[in-house]
Amino acid sequence: MKLFSRLSVGTKVAFVVASLVVICICVLAVCIILTSKNTLENESYRILHQASYRYGTLLEGVSSEILDTLLINATAIDSQVARNMLNMEDFKDIITAIPNNIESIKYAYLFIPQLSDKGEIIILAEQDGKRGQKANLIKAETSIKEFTSIQNAIAHDKPSISAPTTITFQNKEYFAQGFAVPIHNKNGKAIGALGCFVNFATLGAPLLSDEARIFTNDQRFVIDENGTILVNQNPQFIGKKLIDIVPTQEAKNIVASAKEGKSGIFPYRTAAGIEGVIGMRSVAPLKGDSTYWNVLSYIPNKSITESLIKLLWVIIMCSAATIFIIVIGAILYLRTSVAKRIRLILQTLLAFFSYLNHERKDAPQPLKIVAQDELGEMGNAINDNIQKTKLGLEQDSKAVEQSVLTAKTIESGDFRARITETPHNPQLNELKNVLNHMLDDLQTKIGSDTNEIARVFDSYTRLDFTTEVNNASGRVEVVTNTLGEEIRKMLHTSSNFAQNLSEEAKALAEAV
């Protein structure tokens, strides 16, 4: 505190301004960072929500399209069976038209265990990638009839979906999930099933593409209601349980929500221990069934905070630059405009005090007024008072000089001298009046010229009483003249008396 009190005004003001600027900008930066953090988190969650919903809607659309296609074609087959118009070529045309019209369907099939004299019917078609054209018929796989989707469709007489699994057709393995709808006879009894297998590699391609990436190091995958991974960018995870790969409580909570078909934002930790958040959208590929496809979009916390860190550095750099500019600008302004003017005022005041204390003979030069602010008003007041004091001191000096001359005149014996100059100092003016009054009193009691009185007294000492004080007005002068007059009268009387004695002596001598 003592060090601060010794600093100049400009330095103190600059320090205070810099401190306030630093505090305000730091508070502002903290508020911006906190607000930005919340905004970025909310925006990230919103993007996660939108991304998972977007691809969830895509999967929902695909499942609806598959079921609609199967139901429409099943109705056509039901119609032929009811009319007993069993044309195998028509059945084949129906089956081969399904895969190439829906990209995610790898295989379509028709299975009827017993149809009148036709016996068991198994027709299998494989997608050849040519949209709008018929697929290729391939050798029927007897393993088809073992799928739960077919068995449930026939047994429960309603659309069914199997658990995702790896299927092998023509020595090729595919991770797929089966859809099936029942085929009815003319009595409405389920006698077979029309179905297909969804290839998750094709279904998940849009989800795994680079265009789907929303953040750095994000992940997108699909699990079913049991936590089985259906789509993932790492092929070795396909078909495995999420909680087996990531045995954490966060993963268990996600699987529990997936089983209930609950969408939302969940905390998550990867198998590598990287923490983040997951946005999950659950869709039911088969309405009224407990099967769910759950689209998960994962963002590492680092990716969320990456933008925040960049913003933080921008704020820090901008804040530092702002503080530097404001502080340097304030210091330069204070030095050139305020501190410099204060120093000039201080120097002028010190010179003025030296002038008042008679340490210098000349008054300081007036301050140059450069602005009509408080310092400018102070400078004007100082200039006015310097000018008034200068004139007052000059006036006092003249009065003192005249007083000295008057004293010398009085010293020479002339009491008629007076101080006529009026000093600026009231005390000097009072002294002037006292001296003039004293001189008036001396002139009244003594006289106008002591030299004249001394001349008369000198004559008296030589017994010359014939002279007198000319123009006597003072009491001493009048008394001196009166004394001389009386002495002259006395001498004249004595002279007459002596003359009479002389004459009487002569007369006596003559008489004798």
From TrEMBL:
Chain ranges of the HAMP domain: 406-447
Coiled-coil ranges per UniProt: none
Residues annotated as transmembrane: 12-35, 311-334
InterPro entries cross-referenced by the UniProt entry: HAMP_dom
GO cellular component: membrane
Domain of life the protein comes from: Bacteria
Keywords: Membrane, Transmembrane, Transmembrane helix
PROSITE patterns: HAMP
Keyword Membrane: yes
GO biological process: signal transduction
Listed name of the protein: Methyl-accepting chemotaxis protein
The species this protein was found in: Helicobacter magdeburgensis
